[in-house]
Amino acid sequence: MISSIILGDDLPPLPQELLVARDRGDVLFIVGAGASYPPPSSLPDFGGLVADIYAEVDAAMKGPLAELRKPKPLEWNKIPGMLTHQQRTELKFFAQHEYDVVLGMLERRIDGDPSRMSTLRRAARKVLERTVEPNSLHSALVRLGQRFGQTLLVTTNFDRLLSIAAKKDKYSDEAFALGEIPNPSRSTEFAGILHIHGMLPLKSQRGSTLILTDQDFGDAYLRRHIITSFLYDAARIFHLVLVGYSANDSPVRYLLNAIAADERHFVDLKPRYAFVGCDPSDARTPIEWQSRGITPITYDKADNHKALGKVLSRWSEIIPDKRNTSRVKKHLVSIAKLDPDTPEGQVGQSFIRYYVGRSNPTEQAELSRLLASKVASPKWLAFLNQLVRETARGS
C-alpha cells in the first residue's frame, strides 16, 4: 500500500497517516520563526532578532555581529573593534548560536535585574512590531489548523501574524499566551492560537511577557514547567508537526528536549513530524531530527525555502473544507485522465487512496461516477473497486 502522498512536482511526499490525522482533528502544528521569514512579513530569525536588538541598544556590537552572520565569518576572537571583555564574551556565545544566553548577558549588563519593560525587551518589541503583514505560509497554516470549526495552532513566535492571517481569511483568530493557554484535550473547545513563548499586543488584545533570555527559558521549561507540561499532554493526544524550525536554534533545543523526554515516560505517544529544509545531498540534518524522536519531512531549502510554502499551501487546498470543494474536484478530474500505471498515475493513486479513506458514501459515489466516465481510463474503476473492498476489510 502506498503510504505517502505527493502533491506536486519537486514537493516532499507527505505521510498518508498524517493527512488522515489532520482531517480527524488529531494534529497540532507548532510554528516557529521560519514561518515569518518570507516576504512580506520578513521578520528575522532568533539570531537576526538578537543582532537587531543590539543595533538598538549597543551600536558598538552592530558591526561585529554582522560579521558573525556572514556565510564565512571570521572567528569571534579575531573580529576587530574596541569592545569590552563583557562584549567579547557576548560575541563568543553569539558565535555558538546560544542566543538566549547572549540576551541574558545583555539584559544583565544594561538593565541589571530583568523586568517586563527592560531596555532589552522594549528593543525586542520595537524590532518585532516592524511588520503586521502575514505571508502565504501563515495563511496555509491557518487553513491547516482548522479543527472542528476553530483555529488551533501553537507557536513559539511573539508576532501576531497568524492571528492577522486568520482574521483576513475569516477564521477564528483568538490568541492566548503563557498562563492563559488552555490545557490540551480532545475536546472541541481546545482551540486558539497559542503563544507558548509569549506574544506582542495587537490592537485591543493584550500582550504578555516574552520568553527571550536563558533565565526566561529556564524558568518556563525547568522551574515552573509551564511549557513542558503543555507539551507532555499535547504529545499524548496529537500528532505534533513542527514548521519553521532549525534543530540548532536555542529555543528549539528547549522545545525538542521537552518532547524527547516524554518518550521515557509514555509508550503511547503519537508520531511527531518536522518539516526540515536542507540540501538534497544533506543526509546529516534529517538524522539530527530522527535522533530526537522526530520524523523529518525533508524539502529542498533552495530559493529561501520556497518548497515549504508550496507544499503547505497545496496541502491546505485539498483538505476537507467547503472552500476547497471545487479545487479537489478539479484535481480528481485531472487524475482521472491519467493512466494509473504511469509514474504520474501512481502519484494519483496515492491521492485517491487517501481521498477514499476520508470521504463519505456520497463523495465515494461521485468519485465512482467520475472514474467510470468517458474522460477516465477504464483502469481507474478497477482500482477504485479494489480499494473500496480493501477499505471495507480494514486493510
SSE arrangement:
Elements: E1 4-5, E2 14-15, H1 16-23, E3 27-31, H2 46-57, H3 62-68, H4 85-95, H5 99-111, H6 119-128, H7 136-144, E4 146-147, E5 150-155, H8 161-168, E6 175-177, E7 192-195, H9 214-223, H10 226-237, E8 239-243, H11 250-261, E9 272-278, H12 284-290, E10 295-300, H13 302-316, H14 325-336, H15 343-358, H16 361-371, H17 378-393
Parallel strand pairs: 3-5, 3-8, 5-7, 6-7, 8-9, 9-10
Antiparallel strand pairs: 1-2, 4-5
Helix pairs in contact: 1-15, 2-6, 4-5, 7-8, 7-13, 15-17
Question: What's the count of strands?
Answer: 10
Mean pLDDT: 90
Any idea what the CATH architecture of the largest domain is? Answer: 3-Layer(aba) Sandwich
- Which structural class do the helices and strands define? alpha/beta
